[in-house]
Amino acid sequence: MGLAKTEIFTEEQNKIALFAKVFGHPARVAILQHLFKINACVCGDLVDEIGLAQPTISQHLKELKNLGLIKGNVEGTSVCYCIDETNWKHMKTLMNEFLNQDLQTNSCC
Amino acid sequence: MGLAKTEIFTEEQNKIALFAKVFGHPARVAILQHLFKINACVCGDLVDEIGLAQPTISQHLKELKNLGLIKGNVEGTSVCYCIDETNWKHMKTLMNEFLNQDLQTNSCC
DNA sequence: TTGTTATATTGCAATATTACGATTAATAAG
DNA sequence: CTTATTAATCGTAATATTGCAATATAACAA
């Protein structure tokens, strides 16, 4: 199949999975880390920084943008990318809720 | 390709991506949430709870176990699964470091 | 207009993922 | 030993992902 049965899961579970999936590739992790460090940069900088072909970086940027985690502003022939702080915060809240779950007891099998 | 170029990324970036990837499917999110809620349960319970076929659940459990996030104990013909607290904490530290990055300034493009 | 630069899109090959039926393995019950 | 019961493994079809060459698009410069 290769296709997740999203209809049998809650909206929250699907949302968590969607965000996690986009972090599930080191290139996208690297792009985000670089954006946090540099604050804003153009696509070409990321190509140089990361070392993947331009179409590949462009594709990863598109996925991050589709989820709303970054935004891009056209500046002449370049496109300047940066973190979308509001959406990043929303994502963080969702992910933290998932990651910070606590066990009721610590008796285990 | 379908194959990530892991060699051009840092170990940290690859680790983050590996953990994120395993959370990138709603079934595995659901399994983990159920384990946190119930504390420990056998594979069959998860099959009933989630509604995917037994081999499919078994496959997802294997991936979670491979990353060390859960552990399974044989109890007769059943296998009892639970969260591996120590490894979960390590993962949480790594992911929080990534998610809680701060922007230097909020001047953006 | 013509050329240049920067990014996006298309198309495709290689590989990975998801899901499940069929089967196997392992333990327990009779 | 035979038969359930439970979970893992195997095999496979359908689909998704990754990466890049080739090409298209868009904005600017001359």
Automatic annotation (TrEMBL), chains A, B:
* InterPro entries per record: ArsR-like_HTH (IPR011991), HTH_ArsR_DNA-bd_dom (IPR001845), HTH_MetalResp_TranReg (IPR051081), WH-like_DNA-bd_sf (IPR036388), WH_DNA-bd_sf (IPR036390)
- HTH arsR-type domain: from which residue to which, for each copy? 8-106
- State if Nucleotide-binding is listed as a keyword: no
Which Pfam families does this entry report, sorted A to Z?
A: HTH_5
Domain of life where this protein originates: Bacteria
**Alphabetized UniProt keyword annotations:** DNA-binding, Transcription, Transcription regulation
A GO molecular function for this record?
DNA binding
Known PROSITE patterns for this protein?
Answer: HTH_ARSR_2
Report if keyword S-adenosyl-L-methionine is assigned.
Answer: no
What SMART domains would the database entry show?
HTH_ARSR
In terms of NCBIfam families, this protein maps to: HTH_metalloreg (NF033788)
- PANTHER family the UniProt entry points to: REGULATORY PROTEIN ARSR (PTHR33154:SF15), TRANSCRIPTIONAL REGULATOR, ARSR FAMILY (PTHR33154)
- Under what name is this protein listed? Transcriptional regulator
Organism, as annotated: Croceivirga radicis
